[in-house]
Amino acid sequence: MKFEISKYVCIVLAVLAVSCEKLEDTYSDYAGDGVVRYLGKPSDISVSSGWKRLVVKWTNSVDPAIVNIKVQWDLDGVSKDTLLAKDVSEFSIENLEDGNYEIFVAGVDKNGSTSLSSSLYARPYTEEHEVIRSFTRIVAKHAYIEDRLVLFFSDWQSNVDSASLNYYTKEGELKHLELTSDFCGNNKYYLLEDAIDPSKDISVYRRGRVEGCEDLIVFEPYVLSHDKLYTTDFKQWAKEKYGQEEITDAWINSLTEIEFDYDLNSFEDLLNMPNLERLVLGKGRYMNVDRNDTVAYSMLMDMERSLFTLDVLHQLNQLKVERYSNHYFVDEVPNYVEEKGNTNEQPNVEFMDGSNWVVSCSVEDEGDFDSHLDYLFDGDVNTNWQTELLSAQARTYEIEVNMQEVRTVTGVRVLQNSFEPRDMQGRRLMPTVVKIETSSDRLAWENATYVEDNTLGVSSGEATYLYFKAPKDVRYLRFTFYDQVYGQNFGISLAGIDVF
């Protein structure tokens, strides 16, 4: 029995030997000169991004046939590489431009054959990288006022290593202002003490770090331009009051006196006005002084920035500031502000008689409800148009007026309804804007003012005078109002529209 088992074992071994020999012969047929031997490849390959470089790390194979390590990097079809000693396990690819690079690391034998390699992708940090472009500029805003420089600093960030402002004085001396966390924090708004030479570049230098980059970055210095930047508030004001679609230096330089009447974020745009002599606040708000509606006073969102701006302009340009009623300043009023009291006298204009005008509204009263649309043009400040309060959805009202003949119209007065201080419904239903259009044939309509939506004063009984771009010879007028929200309902209330 033992003999028979040994015999079978010998037979099996013989068959396997023959089979292996034939299998090897088969591989040889396809391999050419012999069995293919693959080099051991590097493992644990990683790439980290640095300043204009990529740092590649890996673990080398123990394969004794390897004599070199090859690192290759490709970008947009252009390939570059370098050969390193076989025991090197880290390489920094320097002086790279912006782009997403494909990286290969492979072992190389004495014949120049390379091991297999998996690719990794990485992008270096350069000036074009969005992370670098968004790095804090430290100087958030600036303005040149003759030979003086005003700086607004952004909040200091912990990734800033150091920063400085380099400038030339009026006498030609190059000076440096070190910018630190304490300095910027204590001088959020800053008037440079030295008079400068504005014809020479003023530059900001920065060093810092960004997340994911191990290098300390020395940023390219940037120059403070002489371009003027304006806030959205100021642009809207310039368009609504003067029709300025674009704010040019020529127009800004021509202004010696301006008026603000409604809410603003700040007065900072005044720093761009070199010839401004007088600022008038709230003169165009014709409020009912008997109602003393303090809730509706015009406000500044950024009081600190505004006060700094006025202080600088008063100091450098002797800017005069006049304030009507209690607009803009709540607690602190600069001592150079001239208080003018309430605006008691309204413009001297002649209102037209609208008693025979034909008036219609795109939203008609339903059922027995009467909004008294005719009250809008009856010339009586004690009557008012008020729509039905509904919870369905907000409505848009187009009120069309046929004056029966062509009239020369210069503007309109929109008069808010009068209400008691605690009458929240009266307060909530006041319209905040109005669109005014004119037509001679009721077919072609044209905006009467510079903007579609004109701002309205929102206090009890307040009158807002809206002047047309130019006097218009027209027969038809169209006023567009929008529902206001009161609780869960929509509606609107208005005392009158007077045409002059």
How would you describe the overall organization of this protein?
The protein is α+β, with helices and mostly antiparallel strands and 500 residues long. It folds into 5 domains: 36 residues; 80 residues, Immunoglobulins (Immunoglobulin-like), CATH 2.60.40.10; 89 residues, Immunoglobulin-like; 108 residues, no CATH class; 142 residues, Jelly Rolls (Sandwich), CATH 2.60.120. Strands 20, 22, 23, 24, 25, 26 and 30 form a 7-stranded antiparallel β-sheet that branches. Strands 10, 11, 13, 14 and 15 form a 5-stranded antiparallel β-sheet that branches. A hairpin with a 2-residue loop joins β27 and β28. It is elongated and about 105 Å long. The N and C termini lie far apart (130 Å). The N terminus is likely disordered.
What features would you highlight for this structure?
Immunoglobulin-like, 7 helices, 500 residues, five-stranded antiparallel β-sheet, alpha+beta, 5 domains, seven-stranded antiparallel β-sheet
Please sum up the structure shown.
The chain is an alpha+beta fold and 500 residues long. 15% of the residues lie in helices and 34% in strands.
**Share in β-strands:** 25-35%
Return the domain count: 5
CATH superfamily of the largest domain: Galactose-binding domain-like
How many individual β-strands? 30
User: Gap between N and C termini, in Å?
Assistant: 130 Å
Main sheet summary:
7 strands, antiparallel
Structural class: alpha+beta
Low-confidence stretches: 1-31
- Quickly give the CATH architecture of the largest domain: Sandwich
Helix tally equals 7
> pLDDT average, as an integer?
92
Q: What is CATH's topology name of the largest domain? A: Jelly Rolls
* Rg over C-alpha atoms, rounded to the nearest angstrom: 39 Å
Q: What's the helical proportion of residues?
A: 10-25%
CATH class of the largest domain: Mainly Beta
Q: What's the shape? A: elongated
